[in-house]
């Protein structure tokens, strides 16, 4: 990658060819490290994502005193082989230093729930983006269960200090569909005596549930009330045991940039292999199909309850599409990319019920509009989403990733689709959060 202080030139791409693996799933990587820290026994994980966000979770695990060794894993892109030798949470130590969660909302939110049942004090901080993101959604239910949490704005913002132990059973109905909050509360339930109930209004990614069940946790998942609503019932305490091995599948959210480019590009074919196909994560593929794209999925196996397979996407004529609140959690991280693709689709694309985008690593609604308008897109901001009128030819333009990895990669897709002109991306180094090799692979798209 080039000098981080300089803007990265991104030229239109004439031909798109890719066939291979992409980096490991970020959500699964965080969860496996945390559950490995909790486990009594050894966990050997391959294909763990080697990125800044996952480093934050590794810092947490080490700060708790868990024996962890990390080596590069040559069998994958941005991949680590991680060995954890957990002795159970009773042997965790109180971190001597503030734990730096960096840019990682998943690290911070899940960690609050993970440590809450135990009588240890942990202090967290993070970067400026994470320090603007709301934490009361996790902090409030943990406080109600008995954890002590201090932080700015009464615990809404970093820095945050938590001291838990002796929690009461949790019974929480989430007002936002958030896998991070849901997972934090399930983790808190693992260390707490009693029956814990977490209800979500719309299904969000369910990796935590699948991993816990694969580890033998007494967790029931039932439909609840409205369409897509779910009730999770966990009987605590439960601490996983034994020796486990896992190979982390590729991240569909990273693959989406390659697959999305292929759909909107006139001369393209992309195949991504060994990628996670958990149905709570594949909303983007469903939306691409609704837009008229050629999407072929072949499921080839399962890892710890997670379906894995390959996805092929080739050049397609796209049409506008509507995405509503009930579908948003299944493609939440792909929505800025969808805005880019919508500029190449015939007709109107509407995304609504997605106000969560405003509290991600950046305000992704405002920022994607700011990136795409100078390129010639007709895009309008809505409080809870955006509207795009297409198709409009894009032209190269300067842009700033606003410190947000997914905006940097979405902009790269727009720059690749431009009819003319080189785009200049400032803040491209943000990709290191989830996909450090992104631009190296991107540069090779034409050559393959
Ligand atoms: C994640 C959940 C999502 C997603 C984030 C990762 C996770 O956030 O945006 O990138 O690993 O649980 P919310 O479910 O909190 O919206």
Automatic annotation (TrEMBL):
By sequence similarity, the record places it as follows: Belongs to the EPSP synthase family.
Amino acids binding 3-phosphoshikimate:
26-27, 31, 178, 180, 333, 360
Q: What is this protein's record name?
A: 3-phosphoshikimate 1-carboxyvinyltransferase
Q: How does it assemble?
A: Monomer.
Q: What does this protein do?
A: Catalyzes the transfer of the enolpyruvyl moiety of phosphoenolpyruvate (PEP) to the 5-hydroxyl of shikimate-3-phosphate (S3P) to produce enolpyruvyl shikimate-3-phosphate and inorganic phosphate.
InterPro entries in the record, alphabetically? Enolpyruvate_Tfrase_dom, Enolpyruvate_Tfrase_sf, EPSP_synthase, EPSP_synthase_CS, RNA3'P_cycl/enolpyr_Trfase_a/b
Originating species: Brockia lithotrophica
Indicate the segments forming the Enolpyruvate transferase domain, all copies: 21-440
């Amino acid at each position: 990658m080039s000098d981080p202080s300089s803007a990265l030139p991104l030229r239109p791409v004439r031909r798109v060819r890719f066939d291979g693996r992409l980096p490991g799933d970020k959500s699964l990587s965080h969860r496996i490290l945390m559950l490995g820290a909790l486990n009594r026994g050894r966990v050997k994980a391959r294909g763990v994502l080697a990125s800044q966000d996952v480093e934050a979770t590794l810092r947490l695990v080490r700060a708790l005193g868990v024996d962890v060794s990390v080596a590069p894993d040559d069998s994958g892109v941005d991949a680590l082989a991680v060995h954890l030798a957990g002795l159970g949470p009773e042997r965790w130590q109180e971190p001597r230093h503030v734990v730096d969660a960096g840019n990682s909302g998943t690290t911070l939110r899940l960690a609050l729930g993970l440590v809450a049942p135990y009588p240890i004090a942990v202090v967290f901080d993070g970067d400026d983006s994470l320090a603007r993101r709301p934490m009361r959604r996790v902090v409030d239910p943990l406080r109600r269960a008995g954890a002590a949490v201090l932080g700015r704005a009464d615990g809404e913002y970093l820095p945050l200090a938590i001291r838990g132990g002796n929690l009461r059973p949790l019974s929480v109905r989430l007002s936002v569909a958030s896998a991070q909050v849901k997972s934090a509360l399930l983790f808190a339930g693992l260390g707490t005596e009693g029956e814990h109930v977490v209800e979500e209004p719309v299904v969000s990614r369910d990796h935590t549930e699948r991993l816990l069940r694969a580890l033998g946790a007494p967790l029931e998942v039932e439909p609840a009330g409205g369409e897509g609503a779910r009730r999770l019932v966990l009987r605590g305490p439960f601490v996983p045991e034994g020796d486990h091995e896992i190979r982390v599948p590729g991240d569909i959210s990273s693959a989406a940039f390659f697959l999305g480019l292929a759909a909107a590009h006139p001369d393209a074919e992309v195949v991504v292999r060994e990628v996670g196909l958990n149905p709570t994560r594949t909303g983007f593929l469903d939306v691409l199909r609704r837009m008229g794209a050629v999407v072929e999925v072949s499921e080839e196996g399962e890892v710890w309850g997670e379906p894995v397979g390959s996805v092929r996407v080739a050049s397609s004529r796209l049409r506008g599409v509507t995405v509503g609140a009930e579908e948003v959690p299944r493609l939440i991280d792909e929505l800025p990319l969808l805005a880019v693709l919508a500029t190449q689709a015939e007709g109107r694309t509407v995304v609504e019920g997605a106000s969560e985008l405003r509290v991600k690593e950046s305000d992704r609604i405002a920022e994607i509009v700011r990136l795409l308008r100078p390129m010639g897109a007709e895009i309008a901001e809505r409080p809870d989403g955006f509207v795009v009128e297409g198709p409009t030819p894009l032209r190269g333009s300067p842009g700033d990733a606003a410190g947000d990895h997914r905006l940097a990669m979405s902009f790269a897709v727009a720059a690749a689709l431009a009819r003319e002109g080189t785009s200049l991306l400032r803040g491209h180094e943000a990709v290191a959060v989830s996909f450090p090799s992104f631009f190296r692979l991107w540069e090779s798209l034409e050559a393959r």
